[in-house]
Amino acid sequence: MNSRHLFLMGGSPPFGQRLGRMFTELACGSDGKIAILFLEREGWEMYMKKYTSALISYGARSFCYLPLSPDPAESYLQELMSCSGIIIGGGNTENYRKFIVDSETGECIRRMYMNGIPVAGFSAGALIIPEHCIIPPIDTPKRQHLFLKGLGLIRGCAISVHFTKWNERENLKAAAGKVNAATGYGIDDDAGVYFHNEIQADDEGSIHIYKNGIE
Questions:
Q1: Fewest CB atoms within 10 Å of the CB: 2, 20, 24, 62?
Q2: pLDDT by residue (tens digit) across 115-129?
Q3: How many alpha carbons fall within 13 Å on the CB side of residue 189?
Q4: pTM value?
């Protein structure tokens, strides 16, 4: 079985220095092609530089910009599967989940991840990656704590993003208890956690880890 590589980032891009270099190297450096999946909105072209600039400095040269849709075309899926690294962007978490988790796009991501393609999620992109997609009240229109099906790339943990900014300590502890997760990861803005074969192997920035509700 191939080694699996997962990066969960707590805020908006760019990557931090260490995890950005690691992601670029795992995505085959200058010989690779990195897919960026995002919700299309006005000005998205300029925003992509926030993802690419740090990675270019570590040798990345080729990027593929893939706006999400609920019913992706076969050409879209073929383009995604031709990539050697995947970044899932941030924005409206419920829409990211809707367009990825239960679609052909999500199935492609799962297959690619299992085949060793590194996957990174920023903010909303990080929230949809675990088995349980836990969306805090601050991130939903009706201020509800949502517990939904996630991509399932990692299990046994609860993830919180924008941890300090959103004051998520109690929400994360409650969420971990509800889904029976032994570990809760509170990831601050400008921080990230790297998992190798679903085991935490590195981190960068401010990370708050709770084991059975205790930090």
A1: 2
A2: 999 999 999 999 999
A3: 7
A4: 0.96
